[in-house]
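Why run this: before we spend reagent on co-expression, it is cheaper to look at a predicted model of the complex and decide which construct boundaries make sense. The entries below are exactly what would go into the expression plan.
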Amino acid sequence: NAGVMQNPRHLVRRRGQEARLRCSPMKGHSHVYWYRQLPEEGLKFMVYLQKENIIDESGMPKERFSAEFPKEGPSILRIQQVVRGDSAAYFCASSPLPGQGVSYEQYFGPGTRLTVT
Amino acid sequence: GQNIDQPTEMTATEGAIVQINCTYQTSGFNGLFWYQQHAGEAPTFLSYNVLDGLEEKGRFSSFLSRSKGYSYLLLKELQMKDSASYLCAAGRSGSARQLTFGSGTQLTVLP
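The model came back. Tokens follow.
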């Protein structure tokens, strides 16, 4: 059973370009979460999605950031017009539906390390 | 608001026992998670406490006191591979299911 998959693992973008980060949840999981981790800091929640729905985006910056989880395909975190401060590790996590096992347990992907030059 | 506090660094010796403390203040609290994260890797789930008391799982145990807003992770028979960052995270109930993480405790195990 494959775990959470993220790609690319490393992404380099120049200031002003767009970054697209992809996440495929574990098989059978329908909840996806995106977190950002700056160097030497903890994980900060960004957005929580179910298929075709954004449930909670309270951690997303108001501008340039967007996320989606379409009916088919992976979840995508998009950062437009990247700036140096966007350089970080972006982790995706997934969890099963409530009532299936430990409903709040989140399984993390390997992360995408974004570097903005 | 959400606030999670844990020590920044700890050092212990191989074979010893270490306790990593975590205090939290969150609204809609619904459980306390511990994750292990090695440098450059994804966090991996260690434990989940929703009721008061001690949960034991092999060399790792986790404790929760909801009334005190306090948890600890206990690591026994430390091994070199236990050197990692240990993240305390509070879960929230309802539709807001995100985890609020502390900054992590960097544990170094010395030979």
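Chain B has no helices and eleven strands. Chain B touches chain A through 24 residues (CB under 8 Å). Bring this page to Monday's planning discussion.
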